[in-house]
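Posting this for the archive.
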Amino acid sequence: MGRSVNNLQHLQSDLETSGESSSFIEFGPDFKMGVREYTHQLLAHKMLGPRLLITELKQSVVKYPMSYVWWVLEPTLLALVYLFLVLILGRGSSDIPVPFYVFIVISIFSWYWTSHNITSSLGLLNKYSSLITQIKFPNLILVGVSFAYSVFFFLISYIIVIVLLIANGQYPSIIWFFWPLVFFVQSLFTLAVSIWCILLGLYAPDMQKMVPFLIRLWMYSTPVIYDITCLTDKLPPHIMELYYKINLLAPIIISYRDILIFNSVPDLSQLTWVTIVSFFILVGGLLLFIRNEDRFTRYL
């Protein structure tokens, strides 16, 4: 996610000098401009997003040279911690064709990306408060920059997952072509939830202390550090069907395992459900974001 906006003062000066923000029209509380006008403003500021993203990536190297390593190291360490707990307090599943630590790493890396996006999104607008309060531009660009930044690091960090799979005899197959589909569904879901968390972090900042606990509870209720059979063996089918419809991240985690570990086609019906629900959550969040954008400066 984005670093402190105090390091973006030079970009702010460039925007003011170039007049890139001069054509921006303020949003009224009655949302008179509509989505079409907002789209026009996004296109008018189309260069702001790439410039911010490049600035963020450069600062990651210059000011935080370990950031690239940390995106791989942090989920790896989490995987080791949970692997230890599972092996000591319980036992890993014996029905998987790879060592259990590979099973855990795949799940943790996928889970970490979504959870990290959600927690980071809570303070996104405050990180860019200087830019928002001094320059008029569609703030939705900041959401895109932050999300693209996290996608870049997620794809880099996922290399370690591929290496572990190949090292344990799981070689790429035609089934792996379903991986981009699952990643797209997860991206849609993650972005949808993050939009709402951005607004939550702005209007209810105290929730930032509670969200990490809710996310931890969410993780334990999702088959991240255990196999889904731990639930299917104990719960009746109608309860599991309801579980998949409520916990939208569960089908995503399971799909990654189906593709990379079991070399099987994921449940497309479950992924379709997640896609549909995520789409409506995203649309609702975007409309609410745009509708209230002109009020953001009051809370920064």
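Residues 122 and 204 are 9 Å apart (CA to CA). The chain has 15 helices and no strands.
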